[in-house]
Amino acid sequence: MMRLRPARGIAVVEEGDVVYAATLPDGPIIVLDGGAAAIWVAACGGPRTSIAERVAAATDVPVDTVRPDVEAFVGELVDRGLLEPHAA
Description:
The protein is an alpha+beta fold. It has helices at residues 35-43, 51-59, 63-79, and strands at residues 2-6, 10-15, 18-23, 29-33, 83-87.
């Protein structure tokens, strides 16, 4: 089962509904709130194949509505080196 986690060298702080992620030691600090924070939490909280379902449940939005944006944003987080895949 493929999962995602913060990439090596990324520090993460979750404060309520906001996620702060930064490349150590020099940043920049990325601030994620609202839907972006919900996507980050869901991406780190279970299998990659069900991230959209977890975001839909957390935001009370139909999964078919959120899936395209969730998949695009997760891809961006991976491409930017903030998240990395790992086998669970």
